[in-house]
Amino acid sequence: MKEFAKKSIMFHSKISKILSFTNQTFFSKNIFISSNKLFSSKNDNNNTKSSTSEKDNDSKYGVCPAGCTLHNHKFEASYNRLIEGNQKYVLEKTMNNPNYFKDRAQNQTPKYLLIGCSDSRVPPNEMTMTEPGEIFIHRNIANQVIFSDLNCMSVLQFGIEHLKVQHVIVLGHTKCGGIIASKNKEYKGIIENWLQNIRDIAFMNKEELDKCKTEEDYFKKLTILNVKSQVLNVCKTPYVQKAWANNQKLHVHGWLVDIETGLINDLGVTNKDWNKIKESYEFNFKLI
Ligand code: CO
Q: How confident is the model at residue 272 (pLDDT cuts 50, 70, 90)?
């Protein structure tokens, strides 16, 4: 416990130095060392409503910590807990390894590239217990791989050609809002352009989807079909095919996570499906 308290005090002094250097004294009054808490503040607890009056919040969070003067909004504990959470995170990570961040700042050599959904309930690192630097991540609504999407294509090219990732994973999830919205006929603007791709998958697999007895089954089936389709799209890209032509070690996987259990299921969809469509989509890089 003594060692623990010593480290906490060292961390506190480090944070104070950072705060004084950046002239942001905003958080310093929230940080104090307690004998039985890692890191604490008057507003930092699980029951903010009962412990902090609105008046306290106004005086404490009335000024934007970023110096924004555009509007007179009140900064609430729900916003500031993110920065406080980050300070706890840094403390936890550096407690046993003071160079934790410095080591990672040198470069990144991730073995995995993951394309997931933007859904806030599907955080790739947390769900796979991986550390910063281990997974190169791209996320969008319903984990789409669309060839005209400059963002996704750039991530794939950079990840495969430069970072030399060994695994590309498309991660779909149950109860995906994008999948569910694709069945809704109400027009909601530009998001419909994005969802059109999922509607195409539903249209092309109508016979199989019609066999689903419940709506839940239907959405789960469509989610799996969507993952399979995006896995094939990954395989169709020149970056993947070029890597395979050069005998670069690269596997493409499709996963489904059940957000009610947190468990990931490897759908085992890569090679056999690619072999079926290879003739129509393959580029011959060996001839170039
Ligand atoms: Co989703």
A: confident
Cα–Cα distance between 33 and 230 in angstroms, integer?
49
Known catalytic residue at 44:
no
Cα(28) to centroid(ligand 1), Å: 38
Q: Does 77 lie in the same domain as 215? A: no
Q: Is 212 a catalytic residue?
A: no
Distance of CA 141 from the midpoint of ligand 1 (Å): 6
- Is residue 251 part of the annotated active site? The answer reads no
pLDDT for residue 40: 38
Q: Is 165 found in the same domain as 47? A: no
Beta pairing class for 264-266 and 251-257: antiparallel
| Ligand 1 centre distance from Cα of residue 6 (Å) | 44
Phi, psi of 48 (to 5 degrees): -60, -40
Query: 97 and 219 share a domain?
Result: no
d(CA 253, CA 267): 8
103, 133, 159 — which closes off a domain? 103
Q: Which helix (H) or strand (E) holds 57?
A: helix 54-61
Query: Is the same domain home to 251 and 271?
Result: yes
Give the count of beta carbons closer than 10 Å to the beta carbon of residue 68.
10
The residue from 43, 74, 103 where one domain ends is: 103
Q: Which residue is catalytic, options 44, 152, 173, 273?
A: 173
- Compute the average pLDDT of residues 224-235: 97
Structural domain that includes position 78 = 2-103
CATH number at residue 218: 3.40.1050.10
Q: Which of 35-39, 151-155, 181-185, 192-196 is least confident?
A: 35-39
In the reported structure, the alpha carbon of residue 191 is separated from the centroid of ligand 1 by a whole-number distance in angstroms of: 13
97 lies in the same domain as 122: no
User: Active-site residue 266, yes or no?
Assistant: no
